[in-house]
């Protein structure tokens, strides 16, 4: 079945450590997104990518980095510069503009600080 | 700028009651798309409906119905005869026709009490 796979489901980060969240999709979607979800704040966009080797900052990109070397993969690194990383992270994908554009989501990664 | 407001943070209803979730949006664009997503406790957001700005026809899908009114910039979601399985967080979202970002509301947490 087609879908988006996020791993791990739970992740713990130590002070000063970088951690990477994985996101893979087999939907043949061009665009991929990373959102951060905090209680009561809805979804905030961290980064998005519409084509391979290109990505754009969202509203809260500071302290995060991404890469898009393959169409199927869009990993997110939470760097030590992100001082408040505890949150639920959601990866999403969609078709390119002009088609039946809606977001498909993964099941999320809960990141906590030790 | 685009903005989506879901003023209801939490709603509790008794099973079989009807419930309406409010969504008010702001955009200066004439072409845009509105969405509703459901986030059950498992975490993954599930697509419910997509509506473009030129189609104000209300839609019904089983126990779910949506009322889109451009005059009041609202896209409300009604669940008829609610069930315990409807308990979730519901998000309203918007993307403008020429844009590449989805804008989410802060979500409404619905609890259906058996």
Supply the key terms:
heterodimer; A: 114 residues; mainly beta; seven-stranded mixed sheet; four-stranded antiparallel sheet; 11 strands; globular; B: 114 residues; six-stranded mixed sheet; 12 strands
Summarize this, please?
With 114 residues, chain A is mainly beta. Helix content of chain A is 0%, strand content 49%. In chain A, β4 and β5 form a beta hairpin.
Mean model confidence by pLDDT of chain B = 93
Q: What is the string of SSEs of chain B from the N terminus onward?
A: EEEEEEEEEEEE
Q: What profile does the largest beta sheet of chain B have?
A: 6 strands, mixed
Distance between the termini of chain B: 41 Å
Give the radius of gyration of chain A: 13 Å
How many strands in all of chain A? 11
Principal-axis shape of chain A equals globular
Helix count, DSSP H or I runs of 4 or more residues of chain A: 0
What is the subunit arrangement here? heterodimer
Number of strands of chain B: 12
Radius of gyration of chain B: 14 Å
Query: How confident overall, as mean pLDDT of chain A?
Result: 91
Low-confidence stretches of chain A: none
Structural class of chain B: mainly beta
Query: In which range does the helix fraction of chain B lie?
Result: under 10%
Structural class of chain A comes to mainly beta
- Pair of chains with the largest interface and how many residues each contributes: A-B, 25 and 22 residues
Distance from N terminus to C terminus of chain A (CA atoms, Å) equals 35 Å
Order of helices and strands of chain A: EEEEEEEEEEE
Shape verdict of chain B: globular
